[in-house]
Amino acid sequence: MFFAPSVQFLWRNFDIMHAKLILLYVFITVLLIGACGSRDQKVDQIVEKPKSISTPLPSPEAPIQTIKIVKRLPHDTTAFTQGFLVSGTFFFESTGLNGKSSVRKIDVLTGKILDRKGLDSQFFGEGLALVDEQLFQITWLNQRGFVYDKKSLHLIREFTYIGEGWGLASDGTQLYMSNGTNVITVHSPVDFSQLRAFSVTLNGRPCDKLNELEWVEGELWANVWQTDLIVRINPETGVVNAVINCEVIRKENTMTITSDVMNGIAYDKLSKQIYVTGKNWPWIFLVSVF
Fold this sequence. Notes:
single chain, 2 domains, 2 helices, 17% helix, globular
């Protein structure tokens, strides 16, 4: 009496369960197909973004160059040099350390500070670049930058970016920023939006600790932090074209107790002259490279 209805009950429930499993399978399949489609779309979007880091190409062995000191010029030993450039008869310098950071206008021949604008103590000044008579200064960890009028050092505006700020340079139309790694990011001077990024390689290997930057005749030159080396970078491929060994400066540089590493490259486009200095150094050196 009880067996037949029980079998019928179980069989009916089995059909219902079976139908539910089929529907569940169809539902999961549709979801997977949709997910794969959206993933492919996202990948395509990422590939098309200009901010992607370029793939470095194999590079030949970079030649080693050296320098000859042509002239010594005075430098303020309290200046913890982070950014450095020359324009006409003036050096412009960004100094670091919290509570001591500033942007300065300096007479080339005398080393006299003609104008100075200090940063709030929360900021650690870093790289400095010039575009269309405007100075761009970045900071280390604050992800904040400042734009000044070159003539008066009057603050025009501020901008933001992502990550650490180390060195900054300009080719006249774009800005190049280092962050201590082997990656250089390229930015618009209008709003500092990132246009692209590329990896720097030396003899086929990543070249990191890139610090102060300078644009020199189509190349991006960079101090390698905690060394006496400057690397000459192809800004399109990221390959280091040559390495400049500046250790000869140590023989001519009267270091003080506060003197730190070499950091600071300035190139005069009109005279084709190259100047180098360092953090708290007593001298700025006019040099020739060979």
